Amino acid sequence: MLPACPCCARPFGRRAWLALGLACAAAPALGQADGAPRHLLLAHVDGERFEGIYWRGGVHDPEALAAIAWLFRDREEGLAGPLDPALLDTLWLLDQRVPGRGFEVASAYRTARTQAALAARWGRAATDSLHVQGRAVDVRRPGLHALGLVGAAWQLGRGGVGLYRGASPFVHLDTGPRRRW
Predict the structure, then answer these.
(1) Would you place residue 3 in the very low, low, confident or very high pLDDT band (cuts 50, 70, 90)?
(2) Is residue 166 part of a domain?
(3) pLDDT value, residue 73
(4) Within a domain: residue 10?
(5) Owning domain of residue 40
(6) Averaged over 97-121, what is the pLDDT?
(7) Is 54 part of any domain?
(8) pLDDT value of position 32
(9) Which of 86, 101, 133, 159 suits 28 as a labelling partner, its CA being 20 to 30 A distant?
């Protein structure tokens, strides 16, 4: 009997395991022995930017995390929330893999009230979204079609990857269980 996917309990076929192994082998290692600094360029659709080193010497830089948490804040409430550093590591890995440089951010942290309002307005927004926990971000890579970003993110083998319905160029990334939609 083949093992099951940890997020949806569906059996994995041999091809799925092979693809997962190849994707993981091709991804840059997060625990680089050299401790080289990790740099991110993030621009919110409102025009605010963060460009700098967020990780150095084997640890996440607290000042950079605070600046990014503010950039990722809930724009409706004007509140910064928690920020999962693993989300930034995912963005950094993607930055290494796809053509271009930097990401444009549409949405990241949301308060429970903002998330509930989105769910009421759109009907498709999850009330238990990882955005509320600071574990999700909606981004796009200027000059890259959303499908290209989805494919590269899925190949990383980390967290959730979502493509929004309609013509949205933004892709959902999170640090929850591995799944896609």
Answers:
(1) very low
(2) yes
(3) 98
(4) no
(5) 32-180
(6) 93
(7) yes
(8) 47
(9) 133
